Amino acid sequence: MDMGMSGMRGTGGARAFAITAVSRLRAAWARRPRSDAGMTTAEYAMGTISACAFAAVLYKVVTGSTVQGALQSLIGRALHATF
Asked: Superkingdom, according to UniProt (predicted)?
């Protein structure tokens, strides 16, 4: 008695059907329409705009008098540190 790989008798037809179904699924996946062709460009544009906005906010914060004074103090202490 041929038990097959699954332990059931007479599974040759089911196995062939499964292989055919997988082959058809792969072929359909390969033929699917790729509707996200312009998505990458839009994502890059949004990322660039976000980076520019973040840079503008960061520039405003760093050039403010409070942060500028703190940075000057920190650099001054680092330059005059004794080792």
From this structure: Bacteria
